[in-house]
């Protein structure tokens, strides 16, 4: 049994963070051939929901870089490698030194919560008022974070010169792993996502593979958080637009995401 895992941003999605009509048609062809596919993304379930709706992603899905596995058929939510209070405090302290507001993401059943201190920069305010409100997350002040909250990750956005020192300090913390990249809000900004060090797409892919009894795992990804699933995949493919280290680790490099690279490759690979 073939089982395909798609990263979303920079891979399956186009430059507008959407599933293009050509890619949509390709997913239909996969279903007609009974070729299984799902997602392994750094996004939360909430932020991916509107993108995936209508495309029949009905197999178990990995979110938050593997912290969250959601099975839409059984409505079962599995959480692994959550952040502790000590982890959150350590992250918040580093962010405070650089004048950055950390956003703490928690989940309870299918409800999403975001806790944060008062935003210090306009880009942080816009993040709350546009993206977080758009996905209908429940937003609370940081001081209301419950002691037993199930915290999946901490995210932040800021000027490159502020994010980089936090990144450098986090690399010294053996209990945490951080991913960072350019923000869509502008070239002068970078986003960062921090998780427990044991959380990875690779661990989630392994779990879903075992659950479904897959024999051939095919992974598509473009960034550092995809390396863990590339390492265990039978086949791994990176778009030309992806990071150099991903392209070096991949079985092959395909057309960039803004040219529907994944869809074109799938049609050739599976003779769709």
Furnish the topology, listing elements before pairings.
Elements: E1 2-6, H1 8-12, H2 21-32, E2 36-39, H3 45-52, E3 61-63, E4 68-71, E5 76-79, H4 85-97, E6 103-108, E7 111-116, H5 122-134, E8 138-141, E9 151-159, H6 160-170, E10 176-183, E11 186-196, H7 201-212, E12 216-220, H8 227-232, E13 235-239, H9 244-249, E14 252-254, H10 261-269
Parallel strand pairs: 1-2, 1-12, 7-8, 12-13, 13-14
Antiparallel strand pairs: 3-4, 4-5, 6-7, 6-9, 9-11, 10-11
Helix pairs in contact: 2-10
Q: What's the story with the biggest beta sheet?
A: 6 strands, mixed
CATH topology of the largest domain: Rossmann fold
Question: Which strands sit side by side, in order, in the main sheet?
Answer: 8-7-6-9-11-10
Radius of gyration: 18 Å
> What is the CATH class of the largest domain?
Alpha Beta
| Class by SSE composition | alpha/beta
How far apart, in Å, are the first and last alpha carbons?
17 Å
Overall body shape: globular
Count, helices: 10
CATH superfamily of the largest domain: HAD superfamily/HAD-like
């Amino acid at each position: 049994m073939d089982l395909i895992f798609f990263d979303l941003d920079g891979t399956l999605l186009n430059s507008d963070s959407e599933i293009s009509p050509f890619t949509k048609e390709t997913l239909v062809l996969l279903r007609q051939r009974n070729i299984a596919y799902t997602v392994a993304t750094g996004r939360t379930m909430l932020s991916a929901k509107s993108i995936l709706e209508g495309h029949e992603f009905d197999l178990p899905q990995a979110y938050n870089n593997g912290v969250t596995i959601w099975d839409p058929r059984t409505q079962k939510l599995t959480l692994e490698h959550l952040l502790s209070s000590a982890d959150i405090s350590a992250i918040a302290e580093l962010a405070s030194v650089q004048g950055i507001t950390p956003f703490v993401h928690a989940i309870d059943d299918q409800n999403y919560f975001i806790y944060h201190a008062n935003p210090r920069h306009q880009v942080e305010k816009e993040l709350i008022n546009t993206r977080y409100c758009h996905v209908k997350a429940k937003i609370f002040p940081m001081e209301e974070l419950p002691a037993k909250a199930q915290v999946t990750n901490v995210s932040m956005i800021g000027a490159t010169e502020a994010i980089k020192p936090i990144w450098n300090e986090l690399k010294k913390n053996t209990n945490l792993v951080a991913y960072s990249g350019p923000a869509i809000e502008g070239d002068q900004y970078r986003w960062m996502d921090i998780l427990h060090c044991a959380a990875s797409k690779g661990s989630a892919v392994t779990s879903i593979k075992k659950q479904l009894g897959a024999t051939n795992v095919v992974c598509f990804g473009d960034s550092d958080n995809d390396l863990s699933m590339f390492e265990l995949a039978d086949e791994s493919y990176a778009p030309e637009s992806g990071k150099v280290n991903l392209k070096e680790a991949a079985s092959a490099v395909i057309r960039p995401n803004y040219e529907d690279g994944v869809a074109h490759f799938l049609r050739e690979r599976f003779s769709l």
